[in-house]
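Task 17 of the worksheet. Students: predict the tertiary structure of the chain below and write it out as structure tokens. Keep your answer in the requested format; marks are given for formatting as well as content.
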Amino acid sequence: MDNNVKAYLDDLMIRIPSGKENLKYFRDENKWISSNSQMSIPGKKGKLTELSKTVEIQSFLIAKYPVTKNLYLRITKLLSDDLFIDCTPVVNVTWYDALKFCNLLSLECGLKPCYVFDEVEETATYDQDANGYRLPTDAEWQYACKAGVAGYRYGDIDVIAWYNENSEGKLHEVGKKQPNGWGLYDMLGNSWEWCWDLYDEKTYGVYRVFRGGSWGESARGCGATCRRSGHPTFCIDDLGFRLVRSITA
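Model answer:
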């Protein structure tokens, strides 16, 4: 592996302590998936059922930044220039693209890839014994974002996030806003981030969770508990992802 990439990855991952996280989400039995869109259709207020569960979180490693454009292009062999020329989050990547990247980076680092998937059959499995890079689970992402803070955000939104009122309509270099208490940058705003989990299989089928808000999102959408969903083939100019690794014996 390129020494610059190795040094970057060595500094990138932060250990998150074990704990518990409560996930709340809302189900609308009348929601449906659009036949001509890969985004879910919002439900009507007053018809939502609140569901919740508490998840045990094992200690894990998570990247202090979302995956940058240059890291993504370097590992996928589409870039040979300096790793640090463009440090904005990579976007316009599908959920499948994110899984492919995690597997490719794992192989590059001599680690066991976490995923086996079939885009045609829309199936994916996660090998929990693998030590490679992966996407965070829904609960891991929320737990890491909060960093022990009970509120909707870990700080003043203008201090911690690029969103539609301060972003000037564009992505920004990672790490330029204030991090949360665990040293994670851009958890809110700048770019949405794919998670591993199904959003709500009963209502949305194969649609997957993404989190965190973006440069184009309102303040309301940039919060630790805000959840959105998209088809695993969905991509857009404010949706990327962040790396995680399990801590194995």
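Marker's comment: The chain has a mean pLDDT of 90. The first helix runs from residue 3 to 12.
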